[in-house]
Design the sequence.
């Protein structure tokens, strides 16, 4: 089942954490150093977040495909909710992140439809303040957004993806509330990354899970999964201390959690 928080996180990742450029010629080359256009990026992130996108391929058929799969088409009133898809059926699409911000693929380094791979300007894919493109509608997911329950065995897949099931297992081992989300985080800057954390919310108040981890590791317990905490976790797990919460770190964490330990 799709999760709106994961959609928001993946849009943040592709538009802010890695260098992803804009080009319509190779719009599905979505990888660090690759390219997307506005609709391919949103569709890609929807799929990463577990949503069924049907035959959606561009802005013109996105509304019809998504409204048949749990999304509701709403009139744009200037007050989108976090996770809403902001759609102009003919020309553009973005995702509203909350806090007055949206994420989008805009245009190539030439301010045209096509360009070379990677974000040459820092703005080909970007996060910026909400604006009216103008949008024809907001697409809002109303088909249910509860993360799938953890397996009865308590085991999680050792796949390197820190999604809701892995977070719940980590919360269980650490003795904190098991909601499957690392909450209250700040957006990573250039000193660290969290590319494989797919279940996170933002706001800066910190997470009880991360506070418990920090106390276990003898760190100041601010609840934020920042560079110092990531390195301390990596040191504890015996993996490379690169301040990136990536697949190698997560796989080792998942193996520990499956043994009911951290």
Sequence:
């Amino acid at each position: 089942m799709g999760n709106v928080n994961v959609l928001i996180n993946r849009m943040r990742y592709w538009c802010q954490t890695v260098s992803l450029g804009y080009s319509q010629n190779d719009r599905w080359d979505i990888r660090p150093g690759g390219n997307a256009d506005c609709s391919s990026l949103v569709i890609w992130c929807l799929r990463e977040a577990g949503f069924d996108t049907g035959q959606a391929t561009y802005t013109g058929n996105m509304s019809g495909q998504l409204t048949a799969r749990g999304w509701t088409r709403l009139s744009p009133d200037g007050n989108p909710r976090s996770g809403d898809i902001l759609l102009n059926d003919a020309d553009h699409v973005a995702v509203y992140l909350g806090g007055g911000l949206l994420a989008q693929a805009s245009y190539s380094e030439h301010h045209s439809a096509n360009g070379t791979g990677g974000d040459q300007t820092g703005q080909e894919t970007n996060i910026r303040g909400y604006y009216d493109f103008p949008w024809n509608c907001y697409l809002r997911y109303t088909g249910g957004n509860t993360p799938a329950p953890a397996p009865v065995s308590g085991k999680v897949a050792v796949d390197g993806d820190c999604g809701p099931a892995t977070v719940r297992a980590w919360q269980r081992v650490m003795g904190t509330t098991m909601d499957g989300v690392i909450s209250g985080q700040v957006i990573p800057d250039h000193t660290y990354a969290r590319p494989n954390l797919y279940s996170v919310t933002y706001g800066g108040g910190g997470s009880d899970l991360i506070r418990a981890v920090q106390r276990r590791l003898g760190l100041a317990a601010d609840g934020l999964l920042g560079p110092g905490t990531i390195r301390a976790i990596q040191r504890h797990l015996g993996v490379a201390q690169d301040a990136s919460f990536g697949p190698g770190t997560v796989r080792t964490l998942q193996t520990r959690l499956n043994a009911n330990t951290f």
User: Anything to note?
Assistant: The first helix runs from residue 4 to 17.
